[in-house]
Amino acid sequence: MNYSENKMNIFVKLMICLSVVLSLINISYANNLNDILSALQKAKFSEKQDLLTQIANIKSDRALTILRYIESGSLYYTKNEKITVYAEKVDKNYKITDVLTKNNLGEVKKNKIKRISLNNKLRKHVRVLIAQASLVSKDKKIRINAAKTIFQSKSLELLPLINIALENEQNKSVIKELYKTQARLYLLSEDKLLINKSLEFLVKTTDPGILSAINQFVEKNKNENNFKLEVSKALKLIDKINNNTKFYKFLENLFFGLSLGSVLFIAAVGLAITFGVMGVINMAHGEMIMIGAYTTYVTQLIFPNLIEYSLFIAIPFSFLIAGLIGVLIERVVIRHLYGRPLETLLATFGISLFLQQLVRSIFSPINMPVSTPQWMSGMIEIHPALSLSFGRLYILIFSIMIFILLLVLLKKSHFGIEVRAVMQNRSMARSMGIKTNWIDSLTFGLGSGIAGIAGVALSQITNVGPNLGQSYIIDCFMVVVFGGVGNLWGTLSGAFILGIGNKFLEPYSGAVLAKIITLIFLILFIQKRPKGMFALKGRAAEINQ
C-alpha cells in the first residue's frame, strides 16, 4: 500500500470516527431511528450528513433499507402526520408505505407528501454509507453484492472501504470479489504502481466482467505516453480474456449439446427398443412422453408438500402408467397388424390423436404448471464465463443412468436375452420356445414406460401440454434411424451427435435452419449407411435383411 492509499485510508477512518463522535454529542437529536427520521424531515442540508451517519451507525437491515430509499429518491414524509414513508408512483398517485412498521398506507396525491431531498454531496455520502454498511453485513450475499455495486460505481473514493473490508473479511468468495473490485478501482487512479498491481491481478482472473473496465482504461490512456506500457499490458489482457471467453463458449455449447442429446436419448430409447424388436413405427410414442409429464403434474397435485421429492415419486408412477398403457395398446391394436407397417403407422397415429384429445378433455388444452425442486434450480459456476444449469446437468446424469440400466437389463437378464433373440431372429426364437407374443407386449410396455420417464425429465425443461409429445416424435425417429435400429449404443451416440451438432450450428444459422441442416445431413448419411451407425451384424442380420 503506497503513500496516497494510506492517506486516503486515514482520511476515511478519521471521517468515520468524526461522524460517530458527532452523533454521540449531538444533543439536538434522539438516538432512536424514529427520532432521527423526524429530525431528517426538517433538517437543512448542512445537518443531514450527521443524521444520515446516525442512521448508518444503527447497523440494521431496516436502517440500510432506509438509506437505499434516500439514495434512490423515494423516501418521503406525509405533510399532515409527519410519517416517514416509502413512496412508489402508481398512475397519478403515490402508493406509500411506513418505513418503520412496513404498513401499507394506501395511495395519496403528490401534494400530500414531501420528498426528503439530497444534494450531490449528500448523495455521494449516502453511497459511501450504504457500501460501508453492506460490506460489514452478516449476510455473505449482501457483502458480495456490495462489492459488485462498488465495482460498477467507478468511484475511487470508495477504495479505502474495500481495503478495510479486505482486512476483516474471512469468506473466500467475498475476498475474491473484493480483490476484483479493488483491482478495478486501482485502474481509476493516476498511480502507475496501483495500475500495474491491478493488471497483474486481473491477468490471473480472465473474467469477462472486467473487460469493460479494461477497455475504459485503454480508451482513457491510449494517447498518454506516460501510460504506454500499462496500455500495452491492458491490450494483451483483453486478447487473453477474449480467447478464454471463446474457449469457455465452446465448452458451454458442448454442454448444451450434450444436454440436448441426453433429452433426445431418453425420449428416443424407448422407441428404439420397440422399433428394433417389433418393427413397429409407433406414432403414439410422443404421447407416452406426454403421459409421463402429466403424471409428474398430478403427483405434485397429490403431494403438494413434497415438491423436493416429487420427481422421485413420479418416476416409478410414470413408468408404470405409460408402460401399462403401452401393453394395452399392443394387446388390443398392434398385435393384429404385424407385417402391415402402413396400417400400423395409421393406427398408432389415430391412437396419438385420441390420447391428445383425452388429455385435453381431462386437463384442458392449456399448459399445466410443474414446479422445479430447489435442488434442480440455479447454476453452478465453473468460471465467470461458464455457468452450467443444475437441471440440465441432472438430466444428463439421469440419461446415462437409464442407458446403463437398460444395457444391464438387455445384456444380463433372462428377459433381455429373449428380447435380443426375438430382435435378431423371430422365427428361430419362437422355435426355441420363447413366447414371442408376450415378449412383444412386454417390450412395447418397456419402451412406453421409458418414454413416460422421459416425460418426467422433460416436464422440468419445457411446457407440459397436450402437444408435448409431438414436439419430440420426429427427433426421436431421427435419432433411432441415425444410430441404428434396436442398438442402445447407436441411440446414445446418435442422440449426442445430433444434439451437439445442432447446438454448434444454432449460433451461425439459427434454430430452424440448424434443424434443416441436421435433417439434410441425416438424409445424406442414410444414403451411405441405410442401417445407421451401429447396424446388427451376423447371420441374423442377413436373414432379416
What would you say this structure looks like, in words?
- The structure is a single chain.
- This protein is of the alpha+beta class and 545 residues long.
- It contains 22 helices and 7 strands.
- A 5-stranded antiparallel sheet has the order 4-3-2-1-5. Strands 6-7 form a two-stranded antiparallel ribbon.
- The longest helix has 51 residues.
- The termini are far apart.
- The C terminus is likely disordered.
Radius of gyration: 33 Å
Distance between the termini: 80 Å
**Main sheet specs:** 5 strands, antiparallel
Helix content: 55-70%
Give the helices and strands as they follow along the chain: HHHHEEEEEHHHHHHHHHHEEHHHHHHHH
- Report the mean per-residue pLDDT as an integer: 82
Strand content: 5-15%
Uncertain stretches of 5 or more adjacent residues? 20-31, 538-545
The DSSP helix count reads 22
Give the helix/strand class: alpha+beta
Number of strands: 7
Shape, principal axes of CA atoms: elongated
- Neighbour order of strands in the largest sheet: 4-3-2-1-5
List the helices and strands and how they pair.
Blueprint: H1 3-25, H2 33-42, H3 45-57, H4 61-72, E1 75-78, E2 84-90, E3 93-98, E4 104-108, E5 113-115, H5 120-135, H6 140-153, H7 159-168, H8 172-186, H9 192-205, H10 211-221, H11 228-278, H12 285-302, H13 310-332, H14 341-363, E6 379-383, E7 386-389, H15 390-412, H16 414-424, H17 426-431, H18 436-458, H19 473-483, H20 488-509, H21 511-528, H22 539-544
Antiparallel strand pairs: 1-2, 1-5, 2-3, 3-4, 6-7
Helix pairs in contact: 1-3, 1-7, 2-3, 3-5, 4-5, 5-6, 6-8, 7-8, 8-9, 9-11, 10-11, 11-15, 11-18, 11-19, 11-20, 12-13, 12-14, 12-18, 13-18, 15-16, 16-18, 19-20, 20-21
